[in-house]
Write a structure and sequence with these properties.
two-stranded antiparallel sheet; alpha+beta; single chain; elongated; Muramoyl-pentapeptide Carboxypeptidase, domain 2; 6 strands
């Protein structure tokens, strides 16, 4: 069989095909080279393995919320203490975490309230529960150190000892230190006590503190005594 030499057109096609294939290889090589170098210069993931970035520190959420004097507008101030604050300025000294009720015996501020006051509170709370009302405790029995701490904060907040005295008593005169007072949280609970508390001997003592309740046994028969405008009008505070 006789073979004829390839035509000029056929040779031209082959040349173009070789050129295209060669160009593809060249472009692929360039792309590989660029893909290898670019992350080293601009990508954050290309950092040297010897340099490690430390994770951000985890914030520590406050675990306790004691009650302090109200702000000048009348709303109660709240303060937070980290869990490591124990003793006189922690739960043992009277700090009350969120969500504590009058039935929480594991909280010192509740467990160390005067037994008769605590009994009355629990009787009232049981009755209030039938109306869908729960008694939360914002503050109960406090250590003298904790009371002094709150008084210092009040002086700082209000700017004078005289003004602070309208909201926080001294450790020597405070019924919280003696375990004879409780601060009840939630307006629904204080409203219920305002209407029904006297039947259990539970009385609001100060007009400016609708959350502050003490036991007055005679109130079961005679009703609660007239309230003082604020603690500075209470003879017990004059000691």
């Amino acid at each position: 069989m006789r073979h004829s030499p390839p035509s000029a057109r056929t040779r031209s096609r082959r040349i173009r095909r070789f050129l295209v294939v060669g160009l593809i290889f060249v472009l692929a090589a360039i792309a590989v080279a660029l893909g290898y170098q670019l992350p080293n210069s601009s990508s954050p993931s290309a950092a040297s393995p010897s340099r490690s970035v430390a994770p951000p520190s985890r914030s520590v959420a406050p675990l306790s919320r004691p009650v302090a004097p109200p702000s000048p507008s009348g709303a109660p101030l709240t303060h937070t203490y980290r869990s490591e604050r124990r003793g006189a300025l922690g739960e043992a000294g009277g700090v009350v975490p969120d969500g504590v009720t009058v039935f929480d015996d594991d909280i010192p501020a509740v467990a160390n309230i005067d037994p008769e006051l605590l009994k009355a509170l629990r009787q009232a709370a049981t009755a209030a529960a039938d109306d869908g009302v729960e008694f939360y405790v914002n503050s109960g029995r406090r250590s003298p150190e904790y009371q002094d701490h709150l008084l210092r904060e009040a002086v700082s907040t209000y700017g004078s000892e005289d003004e602070a005295a309208r909201w926080v008593a001294t450790a020597a005169t405070s019924p919280h230190v003696s375990g004879d007072a409780v601060d009840i949280g939630r307006p629904t609970a204080t409203a219920w006590l305002s209407a029904h508390g006297a039947a259990y001997g539970l009385c609001q003592i100060y007009k400016n503190e609708p959350w502050h309740y003490e036991l007055r046994c005679n109130a079961r028969d005679r009703g609660c005594p007239r309230m003082y405008t604020d603690p500075t009008q209470d003879p017990r505070m004059q000691q």
